[in-house]
Amino acid sequence: MEAVLIKNDRFKYLSEVAPPPETKKAYDSWKIEDSKTNVDLILCNQPSELKLVKNCLTAKDMWEKLERTYQSKGPARKANLLKRLLQLKMETNYKIWIFSSIKI
């Protein structure tokens, strides 16, 4: 997800590099770019994850919410990830070589 934002020159809207400007004209331009960043974030997430960020006002808010949710290193998060890993099933149209390159 971060790579897509960097490629599209939108990562700056998630940091302090591009905070909301003070003037109306500059703010309107910033808001358009922030909205495009929101769209990039939405497109990179699963539909089930969208409920987590539906009330976020800016791309930075959305990014921070996702970061707090998924950067957890606690035992509950590890158990959840292990459960999801064990429940993965290969779809019929997938090829095994796709999965052989995954590094854990």
From TrEMBL:
Organism lineage string: Eukaryota, Metazoa, Ecdysozoa, Arthropoda, Chelicerata
Record's protein name: Retrovirus-related Pol polyprotein from transposon TNT 1-94
Protein origin, superkingdom: Eukaryota
Pfam families: Retrotran_gag_2
Organism encoding this protein: Araneus ventricosus
